[in-house]
Design a protein that fits this description.
The chain contains four helices and twelve strands; from the N terminus they run H-E-H-E-E-E-H-E-H-E-E-E-E-E-E-E. 13% of the residues lie in helices and 25% in strands. It has a seven-stranded antiparallel sheet. It has a three-stranded antiparallel sheet with strand order 8-7-12, with no helix packed on it. A two-stranded antiparallel sheet has the order 10-11. By secondary structure, it is an alpha+beta fold. It has one domain: Cathepsin B, Chain A. It comes from Rotaria magnacalcarata.
Length: 268
């Protein structure tokens, strides 16, 4: 342990530890057939205030870690995704994504649609305002979704509610219900088994009120109330010397139901 360990790490681990949300991870360098559908999935996830981060994989020996590429992107560095919107530019409808370098300085994307790109000058003031565009060395920038797929390797999403999962992504999924013994409304989550993604599920799941990415985000949380009471709801664990006079069944319990038979599902 120690504060030194806070210097770096995987963003998704911090997201799930802080929110008890559901983790979803995509490898962008592998084929995602319906990119337009995937973009709409990101828009919807942002409206539900899901947390997102992306990064560029360094070389296996780490020799280029935090190296600044000619296009301004930093290898092995995590960027947060702050918005995704469509933009009508001349006769083309562009899928645009906004990223932020947490260093919050002038080290930004230098490719198409960077802060000082002349393309922005061809847009009217209302469109610039809708895109929340500003020419500032604040680490935040826009790029096309096409360039995003080319430049980045990993996309990580933390769903603060399992309900924001989209089965329409045509991934191989199975549905699980989680309910508490206190009759709280059960929630549904998709466990992604496709080789391109991985997932971790935590309970209880935190929920967020729907809001646009640039609006103030209001956090709320669904809790299952309970307490550990000696000889009543704190049975402890089974130990070798107890000869199975166990009381672990008195521990707080949650019932997990699956909608389809699946021998690979294991719970502990």
């Amino acid at each position: 342990g120690g504060y030194r360990n806070l210097i770096g790490g995987a963003p998704i681990e911090a997201f799930t530890d802080l929110t008890a949300g559901v983790e979803q991870r995509f490898k962008l360098n592998e084929s995602i057939k319906e990119r337009s559908q995937f973009f709409n999935f990101l828009i919807d996830s942002l409206k539900h205030s899901c947390l997102m981060a992306c990064s560029i994989n360094p070389k296996s020996d780490g020799s280029d870690f935090e190296e600044i590429k000619p296009n301004g992107l930093v290898v092995g560095h995590s960027y947060s995704i702050t918005a995704a919107r469509y933009l009508q530019f001349k006769n083309e409808l562009l899928s645009m994504i906004r990223l932020r370098n947490p260093w919050a300085n002038e080290i930004e994307w230098a490719g198409a649609w960077h802060d000082r790109d002349n393309r922005w000058n061809s847009l009217d003031l209302n469109e610039k305002k809708r895109m929340s565009w500003q020419d500032a060395d604040d680490g935040e920038f826009w790029m096309t979704f096409q360039d995003f797929f080319v430049e980045f390797d990993i996309l990580e999403i933390c769903h603060l509610s399992p309900d924001t999962f989209k089965e329409e992504l045509h991934l191989n999924t199975s549905i699980h219900k989680i309910s508490s013994p206190t009759n709280h409304e059960s929630q549904t989550t998709s466990v992604i088994k496709d080789h391109r993604t991985s997932i971790r599920m935590s309970v209880p799941a935190c929920l967020l009120a729907d809001c646009l990415p640039d609006q103030r985000r209001i956090w709320s949380c669904l809790l299952f109330e309970g307490e550990w009471v000696r000889n009543f709801s704190s049975g402890g664990r089974c130990i070798t010397a107890c000869e199975h006079g166990c009381h672990f069944w008195k521990n707080p319990q949650y019932e997990i139901e699956t909608s389809a038979e699946n021998e690979t599902v294991k719970c502990a």
